[in-house]
Write a structure and sequence with these properties.
This protein has one domain. The protein is built from six helices and no strands. The chain has helices at 2-24, 26-34, 40-60, 67-88, 90-102, 106-125. Helix 3 runs antiparallel to helix 4 (67-88) and helix 4 (67-88) packs across helix 5 (90-102).
Length: 127
Amino acid sequence: MDTTMFLASLWGPTVLAIGLGVLINRAFYVKLYRELDKDVLATLIFGMIAVPAGIAQVYFHNVWDTLPQIIVSLLGWATLLKGAAFLVAPQFVDSMGDMWADKKLVPAASIAMLAIGGYLTWFAYLA
């Protein structure tokens, strides 16, 4: 549980801050994601950072017993898979981001991030 607590203390505030940023500055984040395909180097660098980070987290924390452990494990797998998608199929990642923006799902995503980030922050720092 120490690894879960440590990773929750990193993930919680990070996801909480991004969720709050997306909620407050939705247009900025939609623009950022829509223009990502124009900066191929940024796409490559994100994938090159996300894949080893995801592998490291999955290697050290792939535990599925309690809710915090499940959430942290899912975040590790999501980081690994999204990083791999950026390296292997960047056009697919871009089209999925466009779909989320076109269907007005960004506020729902920000609320989900606020809930997950808030829960992990509470778990890591207050529970």
